[in-house]
Write a structure and sequence with these properties.
single chain; 138 residues; alpha+beta; 7-stranded mixed beta sheet; 25% helix
Length: 138
């Protein structure tokens, strides 16, 4: 069974690996059957997602996440959260902000990301946190 502490740790490793372009760590943490759905609607497999990072078609200069909610579902953990980042797509930097859901599955080798889906937030969509009432700061 997986717990919140494990998921926080592996998700921190995943986002650090995304920024560093650390393909070995991403290969370890992303399940072979993972689907990664971008905020644009483009859906990647593990292989196509990693190929985009490896080729430089997709890069991250920084990533911040906040507002995590942990929902246990059998041997999986769903983690809705807010994500802010700076992406570099085909050499063009762009700010990025979304609500996303990461789904982690327990395996004998530790949690593995099996699904990720992001929904872009429009510019100027700043709002207070529903949990704290304070402005979101990622």
């Amino acid at each position: 069974m997986i717990d919140e502490e494990q998921i926080r740790a592996v998700d921190d490793r995943r986002t650090a690996a995304m920024v560093a372009g650390d393909l070995p760590t991403l290969r370890e943490l992303i399940a072979d059957d993972c689907r990664y759905v971008h905020s644009t609607g483009v859906s990647d497999t593990k292989d196509s997602y990693l190929a985009a990072i490896e080729s430089g078609a997709l890069a991250y200069t920084w990533i911040g996440t906040a507002e995590h909610i942990f929902i246990r579902a059998g041997d999986a953990m769903l983690v809705p959260h807010e994500m802010r980042a700076e992406l570099v797509r085909s050499g063009v930097p762009e700010p990025y902000r979304s609500r996303a859901v990461a789904v982690w599955r327990a395996t004998p080798d530790g949690p593995r990301l099996i699904y990720f889906q992001a929904t872009a937030l429009p510019a100027g969509a700043d709002r207070p946190s529903p949990e704290t009432g304070k402005p979101l700061a990622v």
